[in-house]
Amino acid sequence: MSLQRMGMTPAQPGTWVKRSTLPVLSAGLFLWSTAPAQAATAGQHIEKQFNVSGRPVVVIHNVANGRIEVKSWKNKEVDVVGTQTSNKIGFEIEQVGDRIDVTANILDAAAQPLDLEANLQLTVPEETELQLKSETGLIYVEQVTGDMKLESYGGDVHLKEVSGYIIVKTTSGSLVCTQCAGKLDFSSIGGNAQILQPQLDNVNLMTTTGNILFDGDFVRTGLYSMKSGKGLVEVRFSSTDSFDLKAQTATGIVDNQAAAFLKPDSHGVKHIASKFAQGLVGTVGMGLAKVELSSYSGTIRIMKRD
Amino acid sequence: MQCKDIELVLEQEGLEPLPEEARAHMAECRDCRSYVADLTSLVDAARKLPSEITPPDRVWISLRAQLAEEGIIKIPAEATRAEAAPFWESISDFFRSRALATAMVGILIVAATVFQVRRSRTAPVAPPAQTATAESAPQKAAVPEPSEGFDRAARALDDQEPVATGMIVASSSPVDVSLRDNLKKVNEFIADCQRHLKEQPQDALTREYLSAAYEQKAELLSAMIERGRSIN
After folding, report:
1. Residue B49 near residue B109 (C-beta atoms within 8 A)
2. Is there a contact between B200 and A154 if contact means CB atoms under 8 Å apart?
3. C-alpha A40 chain-centroid distance
4. Which of A134, A220, A222, B92 has the most crowded CB, counting CB atoms within 10 A?
């Protein structure tokens, strides 16, 4: 806890602080250490570290404009760094057992958007549960294992090498999920979803006007559902994959560019042509995973990767 | 007909009118009668939810007494009478400001209930060798009108839309602009699905998308009200 961090200048070497100033300094230090961490001033950053014993739960709500970045380390500590562009935002950080709550609040509702930028950077143990909420900023999570719920109105969500039960909900923000594992639920109105090199065994993607791209392997016995109201749903699979496929659209089209690899479903229930939807049903390999693609008026594209 | 068939009928056809076979089964099956009765009462209760609830004064009085009894609030004896009105008003305002959100919860209950009951299973499709083309001929006379459940949900949401959008109408924050834009997108999508369902009322896939869009609209309106409340 240095004096510089308090915005003070330390006494020069060889000089003595007057005795009368010591009680004031002590009181100041005491107050600084016990006050909530919402006193950061313009352009400053605030940093706090919390020791945890088990698997921590980190809850962040950033109501200001700005990003939330979460990375992991081997330490049993949660490190929180907050930066802000003005004193019109306040950080509230508290620890209760292994739960750490971080909130960036707007202190002046009349402030201009440029003054309302607050970024949060966290370093957490590898096994951590996350509940993150942002307004318009990016949510970035890397190398974290644990259940996570990530919500944003307009911000994108980028995940890299995360695993667990992952719930992502946005209004218009997009999801990019690279090398994710476990279970993924994504829902959005205008956001896109890109799932790249996944090891996910349960996927539910739903967007009203956005596009969906799934480029990777289907885990055997996995369940995959991808739906877009008006957007493109594109799946790129490899020849070693094994899955049953059902694709259907009400008014869109199914663009099957992998007809050579798609056999009629020999083990499933009998499929009767719908009067109302265009679609196809088929099997790749043994049909061990189950893949359901649908779009109301968009295009469903099925491709094999090179 | 078995119990699971009743669930299927409810999923596909809704609560009423139930087919003769279903009624015959229910006459002999207490579990199914109870299940349908529960669903009916849930839907009825949701329908009766008013758009705003203003609790009577006695609620505030008993609440205040309870809080005082538990030591959560202290009221100076002398000041009590003089300051009673502002005190009631502040608590009343506290809850009244949440009444709109409560209304939205009501909408969500209505929507969720109707959609759960009405949601159809995904329509079967053709094998790859026989990729089906869209049936262009519209379904006629024998086909029922688009479900009442959708209409009710749509009306409930339409009623709340001006309230919700009005609460953030003056805001130029990126989030509020985004909420308005997305509401427009969802409304357009709903209109598109409704047009399609008028031509092909039994299109299960479109119904599925329409119900999802209503849910999204309810969530958007709820978010608008929540944000509007925090601004105001």
Report:
1. yes
2. no
3. 26
4. A134
In this structure, what DSSP letter does residue B96 have? H
C-alpha–C-alpha distance, residues B164 and B58, integer Å: 30
User: Cβ of B61: how many Cβ atoms within 10 Å?
Assistant: 12
Q: What is the dihedral of CA B205, B211, B213, B214, to 10 degrees?
A: 160
Find out whether A61 and A103 touch, Cβ atoms under 8 Å: yes
The amino acid present at A64, given as its one-letter code, is A
Q: Which chain A residues touch B135 with a CB distance below 8 Å?
A: 274-276
Question: Three-state SS for B59?
Answer: helix
Give helix B30-48 / helix B3-13 axis angle, nearest 10°. Answer: 30
CA B150/CA B207 separation, integer angstroms: 9
Dump the DSSP string for A240-273: T--EEEEEEESSSEEEES-GGG-B--SSSPPPPP
Widest CA span in chain B = 87
Rounded alpha-carbon distances, angstroms, from residue A86 to A40, A43, A114, A202: 9, 6, 9, 43
Q: How far apart are CA A259 and CA B91, in angstroms?
A: 66
Residues of A whose CB is below 8 A from B131 = 254, 256, 278-280
On chain B, the residues whose CB falls within 8 A of the CB of A254 are: 131
Collapsed DSSP state (helix, strand, coil) of residue B228: helix
- Tell me, what's the ipTM? 0.78
Whether chain B has a CB inside 8 Å of the CB on A65: the answer is yes
Q: Which residues of B lie closer than 8 Å to A, measured between beta carbons?
A: 122-135, 173-175, 178-179, 181-182, 185-186, 189, 192-193, 196, 200, 202-206, 209, 212-213, 216, 220, 223, 231
A23: Cα separation from own chain's centroid: 47
Single-letter amino acid code for the residue at A63: V
Q: Which residue of A has its CA nearest to B204?
A: A276
Interchain contact, B125 vs A279, CB within 8 Å: yes
Q: Tens place of pLDDT for every residue, chain A, 306 residues?
A: 333 333 333 333 333 333 444 444 444 444 333 334 444 445 678 899 999 999 999 999 988 888 999 999 999 999 999 998 888 888 899 999 999 999 988 888 777 777 788 899 999 999 999 999 999 899 999 999 999 999 999 999 999 999 999 999 999 999 999 999 999 999 999 999 999 999 999 999 999 999 999 999 999 999 999 999 999 999 999 988 999 999 999 999 999 999 888 888 767 665 555 666 788 999 999 899 999 999 999 999 999 987
If you search the block for the tokens 């005190």, which residue do you land on?
B87
CA B150-A184-A51 angle, to 5 degrees, is 125
In the DSSP assignment, the letter for residue A11 is P
Whether the bond between B17 and the residue before it is cis, its omega within 30 degrees of 0, is: yes
